[in-house]
Amino acid sequence: MKVDPGVLVERLAQAEIPVLRSTAAAMNALALEPDRVTARDIARVVLLDPLMTLKVLRFAETHRGPQQVADITTVEHAVMMHGIGAFLALHRDAPTIEAMLAGDPMALRGALSTVSRAQHAAVFARAIAQHRHDSEAEEVVVAALLHEMAELLLWCHHPREQEEIRDFLEAARGVRSAAAQRLVRGFAHGDLQLALARRWRLPELLRRLMDDDHAHHPRVVNVTCAAALARHLEHGWNDPAVPTDLDTVRRLTGQDSLAASLLVRNAALAAARAWRSTGITPVAAWLPIESRDAPASDAGRPPHDGPDRTVLALGLQRLRAAPAAVDDEALTAWTLFTLQHGLGLRRVLYAMPASDDRRRLDVRFRLVSDPAASDWCSSLHIPLGGTDLFSYLFHTPKGLLAAGENRDRIAGLLLPDQRNAVGEGAFIMMSIFANAEPRGIVLAARGGPEHPIPESLYVPAKAVCQALGKRLASRGLH
């Protein structure tokens, strides 16, 4: 269920903020000998934990004295301003995220993965800031560490929708995170983040550094680039967005491409030292196998063997109610995601006109939840203008189910290489039209002759595809 953003801001602003178990243990150990502890000792512990960093900044704001004019933007300054002994006493025995989410392993892993990403972003931001000789590097580090704070708090207090967003992004690589968040929640995490920062009265400087809308400023670019690197590297060093991130590092630091790449790799190795605090494998772990993607996460949904009417209804609801800011690609990918998880169609793809040649269709999205068929239709060739089934459906608003006795007859309307790519077994094909304009074709299957598609799935599959067409048509009217 979507929650009004204003209501959610109030809920999260007043909710308990847990810390990492490792942070609580370290703070308790420091509290045993407060006379031997420095503000820098405390800062080293705090800056490994975005949750604890947030608690410190909120502590500094709520304990602001009447004579204090300047904002406190660093952890070390916050501790010194309020006294080491008092600070340690107040933060002893803090509640932990591991205890809070002990009964929900999926949410705990999602939260800890977000913490790990924040830790990496902070280290990347520090490395870039130091190379730029930023005299206040810790401000940039804090902003990078807090860049995903809204997502982290949502994992703690509203995890179900976060799982939905994560599963969608894992299935449909290339969809922007903000678009997925708007589809599921109705708003982007960044909007919630800034609203919370204002509600907590975090320092204006930190708010600007966390606001991607100020991306013309080099220090903001540092923060957004570090956060993007951390997010993209979760998918491996060959994620298609990483070269763009590395080019931003090159421009920020004035280095050549090789030096910028080495800076990021060395920072990833430094970030790996904190992995025990989350138990999440750091991105540096697969540097020696950089020609491959990151190991697959075990946190997503398992493949579906049949329809799930609840997921189908929710998928349709999200599609029909998606805000206008959600782009066509996200709407299309969400349609495939709904077909896959709502109807158990384990292999789905969307083909659309090529950007450089309107005489052919290119596969834009391909979602395959069947590990045995990861290369399904990966080399599908779809020319337009002939008498084959793809050409016919692209120009005709129609759908069909190729199953049972009709399967071979319908498959015979495909070109030979298309039949080979589609493989054996039943399949569904649907043309997508926005008003009278052809947009693309959806192809879906369940996985060979041993997984037939019952006729009962055709009507809901058609409803999902028609909902996409209507949304694309309504977007064209704005």
Provide the descriptors you would attach to this structure in a database record.
about 475 residues, alpha+beta, Hypothetical protein af1432, Beta-Lactamase, 3 domains, 6-stranded antiparallel beta sheet, about 55% helix, elongated
Major sheet characteristics = 6 strands, antiparallel
Kindly report the average pLDDT value.
Answer: 90
Distance between the termini: 27 Å
Topology pattern, helix = H, strand = E: HHHHHHHHHHHHHHHHHHHEEEHEHHEEH
Mind telling me the CATH superfamily name of the largest domain?
Hypothetical protein af1432
Structural classification: alpha+beta
- The CATH architecture of the largest domain can be given as Orthogonal Bundle
Number of helices: 23
Q: Roughly how many Å is the radius of gyration?
A: 25 Å
Helix content: 40-55%
Word description of this protein:
Strands 3-2-1-6-5-4 form a 6-stranded antiparallel beta sheet. It is α+β, with helices and mostly antiparallel strands. Strand 5 and strand 6 form a beta hairpin. The protein contains 23 helices and 6 strands. The mean pLDDT is 90. The protein folds into 3 domains: 19-90, no CATH class; 97-289, Hypothetical protein af1432, CATH 1.10.3210.10; 309-476, Beta-Lactamase, CATH 3.30.450.
Concise account of the structure shown:
The protein has helices at 5-14, 21-31, 39-46, 50-62, 75-82, 84-90, 97-100, 105-131, 137-145, 149-157, 159-171, 177-185, 189-199, 204-210, 218-233, 242-253, 257-271, 309-321, 328-343, 389-394, 407-411, 416-422, 458-476, and strands at residues 347-353, 360-368, 382-383, 399-402, 427-434, 437-445.
